[in-house]
Amino acid sequence: MVTFQLSSVSKIFDPLGWLAPFIIGAKILIQSIWTFQISWDDPVPEEINKKWTVFRDQLHHLKSIRIPRRVLLPNATKIELHAFCDASEKAYAAVIYLKSINDSSISVKLLTSKTRVAPLKTVSIPRLELCSALLLCHLVQAVRNSLKIQIDSTYAWTDSMIVLSWLQSESSRWKTFVANRVSEIQSILPSEVWNHIRGRENPADYASRGILPSELKSHSLWWAGPSWLCENNIDYSNQHLFCEDALIEERKKTTCAVGIVPLELSIIGKYSSFAKLLRIVAWCFRFLHNATSPSNKTKGFLTTLEIKCARNALVKIAQNQELASELNILRKGKPLNSKSKIISLSPFMDESGLIRVGGRLKNASISMDQKYPILLPKNHRLTEMIVRYFHEKYLHAGPTLLLSIIRKEYWITSARSIARHIIWKCVKCFHQKGQTANQFMADLPRSRVQPSRVFSRVGTDYAGPFL
User: Fold this and answer.
1) Over the stretch 66-109, which tens digit does the pLDDT of each residue have?
2) InterPro entries per the record (predicted)?
3) Can you name the CATH fold of 1-249?
4) Which residues pair with 412 in a beta bridge?
5) Distances 50 to 30, 45, 53, 283, 398 between C-alpha atoms, Å
């Protein structure tokens, strides 16, 4: 089971990455399991199980690996960090060694390492090498922040001439993927600290490909780095030639003048009235019919059938623009994806090629449009025009009445919010629902609000006798 494999790998406690060449094999194995799209409790395929058996049988060798806790020489006069990175088709890795020098000896010890499995999507080896270089920079940052000692020098090593060529140039020269990573790498480790190393001397190569614990125990290149690292006089000259293969990621620059003119290709966007648009399209169809069939010309007023054909043509435009994926699936007679936004409406395609809403009213004595309303997308301009048309036709009907009228012919997703929006934008409805202004009363006279003696101010009603 997948859970068993994951739990077995998780039991290996290796926060510093000393066992990375062995654990990376398990990571690659776990990644390959997920490509089979099996659940947690399903048995793994036989080919994976064989590889897992080899991995499991090697676990007991880990007990015999001994790692010295002391990595720094006493009274060290110089301390250096040497970081190596490499990548393979399956993974990429970075490893750091601490080199300490005192008056009598030189010591090089494995400090930490980090590995990452390569993405399932195919990525070129040079790009993976660049990802390993970025991983190296992040690891160097973490080591610098963790160690409480003074690091005199830091050196970065890679066996990829392409990566070194990228790092020697301005990041803006390269394509986006390379440019972003080169820029971040250069902000952490300048190009002067990067050096080239031969592939067979690169210890990070084993962390990117993987080796068995039985081999890891006595692997001097992994535990102590290249043999020349223990020498006192190392040639750190960073004079290597530019690799022509690096130009494959060069950003192509072209200067051109572009004039943008707004162009409305759809006839729907040229009119604001649905009734006018409907008749214009119907007349266009009349002209097309008469031009292609001179012997059978249609004359007189527009017929109901012509109006209906024009409506269907406009709805097809809207559905093609907003529901293209669903339309293609329904044309092929296949069921919609469960994640489709209209799956709950049981949509189907009618004889005219329109998407209609399904239902249980097949045997009802009502029209086709009432049984299976035409589906309209909420965000299309045609939908807004149709809602406004019915709102004005039925004397500026309110939201509830407007919805009941529209649903006799169309089904609009989020119809209530669209109806409210159209009514809110309607100028006549806004005027009708306007509130009258409230009268602001004047201040009371001074004689009414100032304290005074009794009968100091007296009023007489002279008109009383006449009433």
Assistant:
1) 888 888 888 888 999 999 999 999 999 999 999 998 888 889 99
2) Integrase_H2C2, Retrotrans_Pao
3) Nucleotidyltransferase; domain 5 (3.30.420)
4) 376
5) 13, 9, 5, 73, 70
